Amino acid sequence: MKVLVIGAGNMGLTYAQGMSKSKLLKKKNIMVLDKSDEKLEEVDQISYFDAYSELHECVPQADIIFIAVKPYHAEPLFKKISSLVTSDQIVISIMAGITIKTIKSLLGLQKIVRAMPNLPAKVGEGVTSYVASSKVSRLEMIVVESLLDTTGKSIQVNNENLIDASTGISGSGPAYVFYFMQSMMEAAQQMGFTRNESKVLVSQTFTGAVELFNQSDLSPNSWMEKVASKGGTTRAALDSMEDNNVNELIKDAAFAAFNKAIELGKNY
Ligand SMILES: NC(=O)c1ccc[n+]([C@@H]2O[C@H](COP(=O)([O-])OP(=O)(O)OC[C@H]3O[C@@H](n4cnc5c(N)ncnc54)[C@H](OP(=O)(O)O)[C@@H]3O)[C@@H](O)[C@H]2O)c1
Which of 10, 154, 192, 204 sits CB 3.0–4.6 Å from 128 for a disulfide? Predict the structure, then answer.
């Protein structure tokens, strides 16, 4: 099996590197194409990839074509490859906002997977939600999922709207966590800690809390109740958040990202 990754940017290279760890792919079975010479030089240094600059040299060889260019590059790219693709090829697109219907109509192919990754894929801790067109077989889905899982975890959804919804939760979500971290680091420094001390305090607090959550079946609410005793310090902080409606504000923020994803998708 051969995979072609089109677009050796942030996400394309992250997935190519993740997929190189897959047992399904042998060395040199990952082709990477980009239009920039600089990016291709970078790709050429990585021994398990074959770098390409010409579509006709790699598109016909691929079983799976992984599209990782910016959404505004999709149309010109698809125009160039539509005469090179064949109906048995599977296209996985991570382009935000470009629907399966659009990809089908521009490429004339039926086996399409639309996926929404997130940035922690770079360190193997990403989460990718994906939806597939009906022509992708169960066996092909297993292959697709195992390739996506090489950058973390993946979840299959059965409705394309949930791809936009996952933009609001996991796609943009790392920024919400960074926002919370930034506020806590600022508070720590205002209390007298150095920048480095506040970084350790905040980062390890996040890591530890997530680890506790992952190792149990308890909900975040149950964990909050465990940490907060009546009349204590944590209760004071949680009461302050409740009084300021922080819970609703965070939900509003996630919906703002979700709505923006829908709005941007209408441009394609
Ligand atoms: N970054 C994220 O966290 C994230 C999260 C979710 C989804 N995504 C999606 O992932 C996709 C890629 O994002 P990115 O941040 O990795 O973008 P990026 O760093 O700009 O990478 C895209 C690469 O594709 C190249 N390219 C453009 N048109 C091409 C063509 N016709 N043939 C070959 N190569 C071409 C670009 O070259 P030039 O630079 O020369 O144009 C660039 O090297 C986007 O569609 C985005 O919506 C990203």
Answer: 154
Asked whether residue 165 is assigned to any structural domain, the reply reads no
Ranges under pLDDT 70 in the chain: none
Residues 122 and 249 both lie in one domain: no
Q: Which mutation among 5, 15, 34, 55 tests ligand 1's pocket best, with the greatest number of atoms within 8 A of CB?
A: 34
Cβ-Cβ contacts under 8 Å for 82 (sequence gap 6 or more): 106, 107, 108
Q: By C-alpha distance, which of 117, 98, 114, 116 is closest to 106? A: 98
Residues 140 and 191 in one domain: no
- Domain annotation covers residue 17: yes
Q: Which of 73, 84, 92, 123 to mutate to test the pocket of ligand 1 (most atoms within 8 A of CB)?
A: 73
Q: Does ligand 1 come within 6 angstroms of the Cβ of 55? A: no
